[in-house]
Design brief:
Shape of chain A: globular
Structural class of chain B: alpha+beta
Largest sheet of chain B: 9 strands, mixed
Strand content of chain A: 15-25%
Radius of gyration of chain B: 22 Å
Oligomer: heterodimer
CATH topology of the largest domain in chain B: Nucleotidyltransferase, domain 5
CATH architecture of the largest domain in chain A: 2-Layer Sandwich
Helix content of chain B: 25-40%
CATH class of the largest domain in chain B: Alpha Beta
Distance between the termini of chain A: 56 Å
Shape of chain B: globular
Structural class of chain A: alpha+beta
Helix content of chain A: 25-40%
CATH architecture of the largest domain in chain B: 2-Layer Sandwich
Radius of gyration of chain A: 22 Å
CATH class of the largest domain in chain A: Alpha Beta
Strand content of chain B: 15-25%
Number of strands of chain B: 25
CATH superfamily of the largest domain in chain A: ATPase, nucleotide binding domain
Largest sheet of chain A: 5 strands, mixed
């Protein structure tokens, strides 16, 4: 490996909308990135699928583009780091080639099978009482009873597609699948496999599955990928792939990181409880924590972090940024021939949404278009526009989607504060929990990343709805690739932790507008009641799907 | 029998429609004019002088289409939207804009009457039917004009409902009747054919009784056309003008609701279920009332289901064909593609449910703070799903009302005659038949059915038509039968439609109080 002044990492962020491929220079923080879209195929049956070959093709093409344009940076490459979506399942053969399509994290078809394995005649939140204790004690969390994670996916394939199951050697997360394509080695890590909940996370640095949890999950141990330590090198890029992509020989490939973990590094806020909000296809509120904690009631847990000596708060909204894509296809430019096609980029839609007043003329949008995960796990929930009047316009509806996602994020943030028993903000805080009542004004600023944060309007709406300042990290869409590159730099020992915060530029602070904040405050009280009022109805409507 | 041609004038909220009917009962001329409502918060007003000009010009156009028939016109009748008040001076000229049924002013004055004595509620319910709750009723409008606008009140000679205002301008005679003054809440409706206001209700309301129009019999003509008006309209000045009716009563005539087993359904701005019954009844829990009908032995069901056609219009104009910075998609005929769009989506709109309470809910469960919505939206929802869901949502709202209305009248609504412009949509007719689970017939020429109903009523009063002929089955264009395969789906979705009302009511109450 050549000694360099500005070492660079080839970072891949596999989003649900396709991979972003980037050359990240660690010292200068120059990032060159391309995004190749791969759309998920969603159907009313609950299926959500992608072809893994499409991802790899996009990675190959994207890398070749970058290599051709930035030969100087390529010469500085020191590692490959893969991050992205997690909780999805790629069935592969012994060589790491996909044997079937990837079941995405939003695929819920395995729900009934998952409930069969996890539940019993007497159940707590859908779990057998004794088993849920084991899950929480050992893993800090448990597979979903809604089927939208690796356990549900594996059960679905096993029962509904037995031939596919038979020719499958291992069930991999998409990230480990990409690593297998780079290195030829099928392997995983404690962190990449987090949503399988099969490792004893009381100890960090595990490279074995917990036999009790494997039994509770009814998993076939032979179909689980070998674990290697988080932060270790899975292998080097094969000669064939290096040649095809135009990469230097023998480039090490690090264990893959779920996007939550890379993003937490990529925000620069890596201190304990330094909190960020990520708005991409889905959304989450994340921060490092010193200890393990789990809340079944609020559907969140802390999981081993990329740093190796602490945890990360993990929770997830099922649908966030995707709601705006959805609104565009539904309200602005559908392919139904009722109106002439219009140009409707998301910035153009923002401009129209900005013409509506804060509060969207009263319209309250529930963004649960595909159910919800945290703070309530309920795959039956669905979205809706509420409180429509004779004054409602399209601009109101579009703005209400932006606001509804922000209300959902506030709901999640406040649930996170309640689970961690402390106010959360982007400022570093003492790791000592507050005793007794919570402080009266917990509204510290929050860092925001993800594609959704590119919208000025949406950042402002978040500041107004959350009632606290929102600090946008520069190039918010690239926080994950930046974090993945940091992970490589830290793991290879070419940078240290103190450098992480210094190297992340903050771009713009959005402060709450008091008048807008007041409007949203009243609407938020009703927003958090909505799912309770509607869940019975949605439970019954789900049976009609 | 005297053979006679007739003119029917139908003053709606959004337009005036006029039909000219020949002595054989066929429509030979039609015309319509648009009306503009000024809305601002609680206020809803129309310029009554513009309304009168629109009537004159529409009648002139309709008569010009068949002048030889117009020359034989012996009877003229007018129906209108109601619970709206025009204050006029001694010359019959409006002294302020008409206070429309959508106008909420005066509600506080009405409530004051209700609250000041313990027996007020029972008194009004027993004698009239509706307690003085305001919220757009004429009594509240009159109290508002009397107490809040002294200048207007000083200049006012008489308060008139729109049909009586038109009748007055046609004849020069100021005369209302028990039916047209229903929403003034000042008549004892326990018997029909009364020509006096109830002295107790008048006294309790502290209304200026000298501003109330005298009441006449519906059976007798109010007068003949004024010569100048007759000349402008292309009609003989010998034509008799019969007392007005409200458009629900005219709709009952048009839809054949006087026959057994048939009920009328009008989906205009609002959805109204129309039927008849023999006695005065009240069901306050579900906002069902009876009001005086066109004959002195029949009441007409008052079952206002709230926003109906307006919901579809609103979604089409403001969402589908929106005009905003993204596009100008107004085409002038947003309904052209409606049936194609409705037909492209399966029954049940792929699970999407539309809640039509855009302006609050009325019968069968009234809530002024309730609002509408789209629920059960998924990543796969499409815009055509939205459009179909709107028409289905309006149908579910009617289905919700139907059993209460049947219990109220005591007779099943075996078949529904659908009138109003919405009946032009074949798909919507089918959706109504499916959701209501009974045959739905669209009236022939549904746009003109109400105007024709009031023309027929005038011919009957004139002796040119038998009552049996008038109350016989309606002239149906097409009949739609429920599709067996859709029943289970709509049954299940209907249950959740009602559940959505209960689930969301508290949220909307908090948001809109």
């Amino acid at each position: 490996m050549a000694t360099t002044n500005d070492p660079a990492v080839l970072a891949v962020d596999l989003g649900t909308g396709g991979p972003k491929i980037a050359l990240v220079s660690l010292r200068s923080q120059a990032i060159e990135a391309v995004h190749h879209r791969v759309e998920p195929r969603v159907s009313a049956s609950g299926a959500a699928l992608q072809d893994p070959a499409d991802w790899w093709r996009a990675v190959v093409e994207g890398t070749r583009e970058l290599v051709a344009q930035h030969p100087g940076t390529v010469a500085e490459l020191v590692a490959v780091a893969v991050t992205g979506q997690w909780g999805s399942t790629v069935p592969v053969d012994a060589a790491g080639e996909a044997t079937g399509e990837c079941m995405l994290w939003m695929d819920t078809r395995g729900g009934p099978l998952a409930r069969g394995v996890l539940g019993g005649r007497v159940s707590v939140e859908g779990f057998r009482p004794r088993s849920i204790l084991e899950w929480i004690r050992r893993a800090g969390g448990a597979p979903s009873t809604e089927g939208n994670d690796p356990l549900g996916h594996r059960l679905w394939i096993q029962h509904e597609e037995p031939q596919l199951y038979a020719r499958t050697a291992k069930f991999l997360e998409p990230l480990d699948y990409l690593n297998a394509r780079f290195t030829g080695r099928v392997a995983a890590s404690q962190t990449s496999m987090l949503l399988s909940w099969l490792t004893d996370n009381r100890r960090l640095g595990q490279s074995d599955y917990d036999p009790v949890l494997v039994r509770l999950a009814a998993a076939d141990p032979r179909r689980l990928p070998t674990l290697v330590p988080t932060g270790s090198t899975v292998g080097t890029v094969t000669q064939q792939v290096a040649d095809e992509l135009g990469l230097p020989p023998d480039l090490p490939v690090l264990t893959a990181l779920p996007d939550l973990l890379s993003a937490t590094l990529g925000t620069g806020g890596i201190g304990m409880y330094q909190t960020h909000l990520s708005i991409s296809t889905s959304a989450w509120v994340g921060c490092h924590t010193p200890t393990k904690r789990t809340s079944i009631a609020k559907q969140m847990a802390t999981v081993p972090s990329a740093l190796g000596d602490c945890y990360v708060l993990a929770n997830n909204h099922e649908t966030a940024g995707v709601c705006m894509e959805w609104a565009r296809n539904l309200l602005v430019d559908p392919a139904d021939e009722l109106t002439e096609p219009v140009r409707s980029s998301l910035p153009e839609i923002d401009r129209v949404a900005a013409t509506a007043a804060s509060g969207s003329g009263g319209v309250l949008f529930a963004p649960w278009l595909n159910g919800e995960r945290s703070p309530v796990a309920n795959a039956d929930l669905r979205g809706g526009f509420h409180n429509l009047s004779l004054a409602t316009t399209r601009a109101d509806l579009l703005r209400s989607v932006l606001e509804g996602v922000a209300h959902n994020n506030r709901w999640l943030l406040e649930a996170s504060e309640s689970v961690l028993k402390r106010p959360l903000s982007a400022g570093a805080r003492s790791s000592r929990p507050t005793i007794g009542s919570r402080p009266r004004n917990p509204a510290g600023e929050l860092r925001v990343i993800g594609g959704g944060a590119q919208s000025d309007l949406w950042c402002q709406i978040h500041a107004d709805v959350l009632g606290r300042p929102v600090q946008r990290v520069a190039e918010p869409l690239l926080a994950n690739v930046r974090g993945a590159a940091f992970f490589a730099g830290l793991s290879l020992g070419i940078m240290d932790r103190s450098e992480v915060a210094e190297r992340v530029p903050l771009e713009r602070l959005f402060t709450p507008d008091p008048r807008a904040q007041k409007v949203h405050e009243a609407m938020h009280r009703e927003f958090v009641r909505l799912h309770r009022m509607e869940r019975g109805m949605y439970g019954r409507l789900a049976e009609l799907r | 029998m005297t053979s006679s041609a007739a003119v029917g004038i139908d003053v709606g909220t959004t337009n005036v429609k006029v039909v000219l009917v020949d002595p054989a009962g066929s429509v030979v001329g039609t015309a319509q004019r648009q009306l503009v409502t000024h809305m601002d918060g609680d206020i809803g007003e129309q310029d009554a002088s513009d309304l009168w000009s629109s009537v004159v010009s529409a009648v002139s156009e309709a008569t010009s289409k068949a002048p030889e028939v117009a020359a034989q016109v012996g009877a003229v009748g007018c129906c209108s939207q109601y619970s709206s008040i025009v204050p006029v001076d001694a010359d019959g000229d409006p002294v302020a804009p008409m206070v429309m049924w959508t106008d909420k002013r005066g509600t506080d004055h009405s409530f004051e009457l209700l609250m000041e004595t313990d027996d007020a509620l029972d008194l009004w319910v027993e004698r009239h039917g509706i307690p003085p709750v305001g919220g757009g009723l004429s009594l509240a409008h009159m109290l508002h004009l009397q107490r809040d606008r002294p200048d207007v009140h000083a200049a006012t000679s008489t308060w008139l409902e729109p049909m009586d205002f038109v009748t007055m301008r046609l004849t020069g005679e100021v005369q209302a009747n028990q039916g047209t003054m229903f929403m003034s809440q000042l008549c004892d409706n326990r018997s029909l054919g009364v020509t006096e206001y109830d002295s107790v209700l008048v006294e309790r309301s502290r209304i200026d009784a000298d501003r109330l129009p005298p009441l006449g019999s519906q059976e007798e003509p109010v007068g003949t056309l004024r010569p100048d008006v007759a000349a402008q309209m292309g009609l003989p000045d010998t034509a008799l003008v019969y007392g007005g009716v409200n458009d629900t009563v005219a709709g009952a005539v048009a839809s054949g609701a006087f026959g057994a087993g048939t009920a009328g359904l009008s989906i205009g701005t609002t959805s109204v279920l129309i039927d008849t019954l023999a006695e005065k009844r009240v069901d306050l829990d579900h906002e069902l009332l009876s009001m005086p009908g066109p004959f002195e032995d029949t009441y007409v069901l008052w079952a206002e289901n709230g926003i109906g056609g307006r919901a579809l219009e609103h979604i089409l104009l403001n969402v589908v064909h929106a005009v905003d910075e993204l596009a100008d998609h107004h085409t002038g005929d947003e309904y052209r593609m409606l049936d194609a769009a409705l037909g492209s989506v399966p029954a049940g709109s792929n699970g999407l449910l539309f809640l039509p309470w855009l302006n609050g809910s009325l019968s069968p469960a009234s809530s002024p703070t309730m609002r509408g919505g789209f629920i059960n939206m998924s990543l796969e929802s499409t815009r055509t799903d939205l459009v179909r869901a709107v028409t289905e949502g309006v149908a579910h709202n009617l289905r919700w009302l139907l059993p209460f209305a049947e219990r109220f009248t005591g007779s099943p609504m075996e078949e529904i005659a659908f009138l109003g412009g919405a009946a032009r949509s074949r798909e919507w007719c089918q959706i109504l038949a499916d959701v209501l689970d009974r045959p739905v017939g669209s009236l022939a020429e549904p746009d003109w059915a109400v105007a024709r109903g009031v023309a027929d009523l005038a011919r009957y009063r004139h002796g040119a038509m038998e009552r049996t002929e008038l109350t016989g089955p309606a002239d149906l264009g097409e009949r739609y039968l429920p599709i067996e395969g859709h029943r289970a789906r709509y049954d299940e979705m209907h249950e959740q439609f009602e559940a959505a009302f209960d689930a969301l009511r508290p949220i909307h109450e908090a948001l809109n109080s």
